[in-house]
Amino acid sequence: MISVNQLLGVSLVYVAFLFAIAFFAERASMRGKGSWLRSPTVYTLSLSIYCTAWTFYGAVGYAARSGMEFVTIYLGPSLVMIGWWWVLRKLVRIGRAQRATSVADLISARYGKSNLLAIVVTVMAVIGVTPYIALQLQSVTLSLSIFSETGQPDSLSQQTAAFWVAGGLVVFTVLFGTRNLNANERHDGVVIAIAVEAVVKLVALLAVGIFVVWGIAGGIGPMMERIDNSSIGEWSMDRSRWAALTMLSAAAFLALPRMFQVMVVENEDERHLQIASWAFPLYLMLMSLFVVPIAVVGLDILPAGSNPDLFVLTVPLAEGQGGLATLSFLGGFSSATSMVIVATLALSTMVSNHVVMPVWLSRQAEGAQVSGDVRNVVILARRASILMIIFFGYIYYRLSGGGAALAAIGLISFVGVAQFLPAMLGGIFWRGATRWGALAGLLVGFAVWVFCSLLPSFGPDAILSTAVFEQGIGGLRWLRPQALFGIEGIDPTVHAMVWSLSLNVAVFVGVSLVTFPTPLERLQGAQFVNVFDHSTQARGWDAALATSEDLMIMAQRILGPADALSLFRAEAQRQGLTGHLPEPTQGFLQTLERELAGSVGSATAHAMISQLVGGTSVSVEDLMAVADESAQILEYSNRLEAKSAELSRTARQLREANQKLTALSVQKDAFLGQISHELRTPMTSIRSFSEILRDTDKLDQADKTKYASIIHGETIRLTRLLDDLLDLSVLENGQVSLNLEQGNLNDVIAQAVLSAGGARSTQLRINHVRSDLDVPLSTDLDRLRQVFINLITNAQKYCNAPEPSLTVDILQHGGGLQVVFHDNGTLIPPEARALIFEKFSRINDKDGSGAGLGLAICREIMARLGGDITYEPRADGNAFIVHLPGQAALAAQ
Amino acid sequence: MGKHVLLVEDEINIIEAIQFLLSREGWKVDTHSDGATAVETVRTMKPDLVVLDYMLPGKNGIDILTELRADPEFARLPILMLTARGQGRDRELAERAGVSRFMSKPFSNTEVMTAVRDLVQLAQ
Fold first, then answer.
1. Could you tell me the residue range of the domain that residue B21 belongs to?
2. Residue numbers in A near B21 (CB within 8 A)
3. Where a domain ends, among A385, A404, A423?
4. Taking residues A222-247, what's their average pLDDT?
5. CB of A845 within 8 Å of any CB in chain B?
6. Which of A56, A275, A396, A625 is close enough to A134 for a disulfide, judged by CB 3.0 to 4.6 Å?
7. How many whole angstroms separate alpha carbon A746 and alpha carbon A98?
8. Which residues of chain B are within 8 Å of residue A672 when distances are taken between CB atoms?
9. Is residue B37 within 8 Å of residue B45, measured between CB atoms?
10. What is the mean pLDDT of chain A?
11. φ, ψ of residue A236 in degrees (nearest 5)
């Protein structure tokens, strides 16, 4: 017979063996030689952590108690793997695309990275899985107690055994799962150890089964007879329970945190799922193959009252097969430990990522700067979480008394974690699902589960009093935990499942319909629901091997081939490598990120490098930052475009202004040159002749007089020029104030003729027509007279006819009056006609006495008076026409 | 002396003054007032020196100067240019065109006479 000590020794050797396998697997994986570690076979075997001690020991007990109903626990997952293969594929694709690390991470990511949701899911998962952990403790403790009973009684009491088993599991899990911290939450060593355990438990169960069928019953035929004769053969199907339990196990298979861990997080290649979809149901079939024979034989040969959950152990022991019993014990041990390791790993990831780290980070004023610091905190948080979770399991085990059937405990957990399913499936198939819908559904479903399933599982009067079971809370009969809303007579498990899930779904859908998703949720919702539209086939390469090359390709796209190559080459040289591909060290990645950030923005650069290196996950915040950046870049470029348009507009205006200025400057230069010339010319004569008069002694009187009169004439010319300039300047600047008077046009003409003739005696004969006509007008009479005088003196100066004459006539024209000054001189040359009213334009100025300002002044004055002055060449001479405005004409009527 | 000076100027009073000053020192002075025909007159008269006004009817002094300098015969002819425009840029233009001496109006009589004497001496 085997002693407990021997058993413990065997267990320790087995554990050491598992450690060795895990250790070598991790080392191989770190060296990049671990591709076999990630084969479809290993993936399929790792899925077998669905089969826990419950399946190993409990299925036989279940069969002994409830007949074929145990099949539902295998049927659910098999149906999911075969029939809902596409749902799993979507889940895996989304999980990988979003780099989800847990169920909580997935759900929170779907609903806008809601941390509240993550915390709720984490807490629910911890509470929901606690009975399950307790189940494992109970099974290992029970199996140990079998050996102690048969060997050395009382050497280990069940309570202390459970405590030591729990402690052992904590150490085991901590050493296995948190030995090193992988940012992608993958554990090559753990997965390979689980695969080995999967083989051990299958082999153990098959060995016991074969021994039972051929060793005890004597073959398949006698075995079938035994089954037909047993109570199991008389079993009849409870349809509602069957359907409900099948559905429940299917739901749990999808929603269990540890299943998510192995199925999604540890998934290396999506294609592995294809093989697992038939290989895993096959594994389940093998696991269930001998359940009924073992149960039947156990019931037959063991004394009544034996715990059927332990038939797998007690049948070989009863037949004196110590070795087989030990193998069986190892199978059960494997089932329990693998479940606890992966479940606590998955849960501790949730607890540390969603509860501990946010709290820790928010307490760090400046965020975590030192990465080693964060690693230590994360590892510590994980280890504490593992301890806490297993401790919870132990507490549950103690409180529930450790006497319940294994399957019953497992089903409680199943109903608990099944509450995640509506939010998960709703999230990946329904874009209308919202954060508040998910939260409300989860909370309602969970509350119903706690009330109807978890609390009653401690037994009457443990937490809920018997009164509550019979009368409902506060005497409200519709609030009884096993008969909600007064519906009685349903199996408690089915009751809890139907009510919790249906209320969960109803509230989830209802609240989702009346609430609106945030933009982030909408974005994530689209990413989840349309994951196959967005993502390409998930990559299957080993990050370390492909990174440098990929980084190079990416850098070339963004920085341009030449810059990227020189950057990489420089780094490779710095690292002492030949060629242009450096090792992707932390320092180089940071340099590269900075370089890329210069081109595409920091968030995008970070997301890109993270994608390629596969080190950190690209969070929703990263994606939003990328979107923000793109929006900013877009806006910036729009602004630039607007700026550029504005600039070119301004440039055009400047060019036009410059052209105007240049033209003005040319005009100004010409004007200044003209003025200078007009001023300097008389001054030259004055200076020269005054010097002659001063310096020449023997000058005769006639010359003296001549020179003095030249000086005199030139000073008059200068004075007139200055007067004209000032006059013109005043007129042009509009500073002139008009002095309106009532008068008679003919009087003004007469005065002008008189003053022009008075100023200079010439031969010009002036013919003033219609001089007796009374033409009253109201205008600035002095200014009008100035125009007339100018025109008359011009005629006096320039009219070159042998008998020069000037006719002044008044005409009614349109609404106004015209005063025509018509001489009989030579016509002004056509090319000069356009210029005569411009400043300094002189034609045939023989004596040089005019500065060429007279007609310019006339034009300015007429403009001020509201009229005009024009030139008309006539057949017999030049005509200057002064147009007087309508107001004057009115006065003339 | 008896050197021959051509005075190209359109202001009658200035012609009078310069003519008086040069004749008094024994120069032979011819006058011409039209810019357009000034180059022709120089070619015909072949003076020892030209006093050239800047602003002339028909063609301005710079154009006349440029045309004369383009002719090898007059490349070294002493030319004194007078201007009443008084702008710095004009002096620059004139010097680039090859003027021998450039003076602004109003000038002092002594200055003009000294310039004329210097230029003729230099040319010999």
1. 4-123
2. 688, 692
3. A404
4. 75
5. no
6. A396
7. 102
8. 87
9. no
10. 78
11. -120, 150
pLDDT for the residue numbered A475: 59
CA of A260: how far to CAs of A96, A231, A786, A827, B99, in Å?
A: 11, 38, 107, 109, 101
Helix (H, G, I), strand (E, B), or coil: what is residue A100? coil
Query: Which tens digit of pLDDT belongs to each residue from A592-616?
Result: 777 776 666 666 666 677 766 655 4
Let me know whether A377 and A338 are in one domain. yes
Tell me the C-alpha distance between A154 and A865, whole Å. 134
Chain A interface disruption, residue of B18, B33, B109, most A CBs within 10 A: B109
pTM exceeds 0.90: no
Inside any domain, residue A235: yes
Give me the pLDDT at residue A359, please: 75
How many domains does the structure of chain A reveal?
4
Give the domain CATH number at A875.
Answer: 3.30.565.10
**H helix and E strand count, chain A:** 37, 9
| CB < 8 Å to A677, chain B | 55, 84-85
What does the pLDDT look like over A451-510, one tens digit per residue? 888 777 776 666 666 666 666 666 555 566 666 666 666 677 778 888 888 888 999 888
Residues spanned by the domain of A315: 4-29+37-404
Task: Say whether B86 and A676 touch across the interface (CB within 8 A).
Answer: yes
* Interval A693-697 mean pLDDT: 88
Q: Which residue in A has a C-alpha nearest to residue B33's C-alpha?
A: A846
Give the CATH number for residue A645.
1.10.287.130
- Do A336 and A234 fall into the same domain? yes
E strands, chain B, where? 4-8, 28-32, 49-53, 79-83, 101-104
Q: Chain B: nearest CA to A881, how far in angstroms?
A: 28
A481 assigned to some structural domain: no
Any CB–CB contact under 8 A between A579 and chain B? no
* Cα nearest neighbour of A842 on chain B: B57
Interface check A677 vs B, CB under 8 A: yes
Q: What is the CATH number of the domain that holds B16?
A: 3.40.50.2300
Same domain, A23 and A78: yes
Contact yes or no for B106 and A848 at CB 8 A: no
Checking if the pLDDT of A540 tops 60, the result is no
Question: Looking at the domain assignment, is residue A186 inside a domain?
Answer: yes
Mean of the pLDDT values across residues A43-71?
Answer: 81
Give residue B110's pLDDT.
92
Q: Are residues A281 and A328 in the same domain?
A: yes
How many CB atoms neighbour CB A825 within 10 A?
A: 19
Taking an 8 Å cut-off on Cβ atoms, the answer to whether A847 and B12 are in contact is yes
Q: Do the chains contact at A684 and B55, CB–CB below 8 Å? A: no
Are A469 and A481 in contact, with CB atoms under 8 Å apart?
yes
Kindly report, residue by residue over B27-67, the tens digit of the pLDDT: 999 999 888 899 999 999 999 999 999 888 888 899 999 99
**Does a structural domain hold residue A217?**
yes
A680, closest residue in chain B (CA to CA): B84
Residues A579 and A708 occupy one common structural domain: no
Co-location of A841 and A796 in the same domain: yes
Distance from C-alpha of A583 to C-alpha of A605, rounded to nearest angstrom: 19
Mean pLDDT of A571-585: 78
Query: A760 and A722 in one domain?
Result: no
Q: Do B109 and A695 touch (CB under 8 A)?
A: yes
Among A727, A757, A781, the domain-final residue is A727
Edge-to-edge strand ranges of the sheet holding A868-874: A765-768, A805-813, A816-823, A877-884, A868-874
